[in-house]
Amino acid sequence: MVDQSSSVRVTPFELVSFSEGSGFVGGTAEKVARAVASAVMSRRDQIKMSEDEIQAFLQAGRDLQVASINADGTPHLVTMWYAVDDGTVAFWTYAKSQKIVNLRRDPRLTVLVATGEAYEELKGVSISGRAEVVEERDEVLRFGEAIYERYWGPIDNDAVREGVRTMGAKRVVVVVKPEKVVSWDHAKLGGTY
Known about the structure:
This protein is of the alpha+beta class and 193 residues long. The chain has helices at residues 29-40, 43-47, 51-60, 98-105, 137-152, 158-168; strands spanning 2-3, 64-69, 75-80, 83-85, 88-94, 108-115, 123-134, 171-185.
């Protein structure tokens, strides 16, 4: 997996003191250190989520934007419900849907989970990679039950389980195999732009 990166290399340092002529008088050492680090770190690096933050964000997310490539090269973009299965994003859909037609022809895709209304609230994870289409009935059913429980709650009777089985009869699971992950959390900017 290729992770996001910056062309700026940051070398850790410790600000021990500053003189009256340094221009830093009147501020706290913490503010000075943050300002210097901010000047050295790219904005991209400042808002990047850790791997744990990415996983927690994906677990908490609700809607997955899925982009595949149509035969004419244009994007095909849809919103899907999804689950994180062993740390990997996956969704289920009808086997004859346009996205599956596209992914069988060209398995490249990009998926996105994003939240936030105001700039300082924007948070998201974009994953580019390849789709693995899973058709094995037991796996499709297992995943369908996971989707049901994620969005509607526990499967607490056989009628519900049979309903999920019926829904899954014409479906496949798409597992997103990441090649590049990009994340952002604008709250990390502390209200600055």
